[in-house]
Design brief:
single chain; about 110 residues; 2 domains; 4 helices
């Protein structure tokens, strides 16, 4: 019997808590819509001031990223072309097989 009463109390409390929570969300939404429109104007003007700098920064980061990708591809191509050479062809260039990674990175002089 006591378990039934506890279960009934729990069933009654859960909807009340849920309704209270939903009610608070509704109040917050209404409060947001009642704020003066001048705040929106201020926010919009701040966004207009910030947006060009933000887009410029994103463009700069994108350029640096794409330049890095191009450099990495060039290094990979250099490595593959040097790795495909025979030891005799590498020696003609003044390289040994163990020098290929440094030569691909452009660390060695004369390559």
């Amino acid at each position: 019997m006591q378990q039934n009463i506890a279960a009934m109390r729990q069933e009654a409390v859960i909807p009340l808590v849920y309704q209270s929570y939903i009610g608070r969300i509704g109040l917050e939404i209404r409060r947001l819509h009642q704020r003066p429109s001048s705040m929106t104007t201020l926010a919009l003007s701040a966004l207009i001031d910030i947006a060009p700098r933000w887009f410029s920064r994103v463009g700069r980061y994108w350029t640096e990223f794409s330049t890095g990708i191009e450099e990495a591809r060039a290094m990979a191509l250099r490595y593959q072309s040097l790795a495909a050479l025979s030891d005799r062809e590498l020696a003609a260039r003044g390289l040994k097989r163990q020098d290929i990674p440094r030569a691909a990175l452009g660390v060695l002089d004369g390559v």
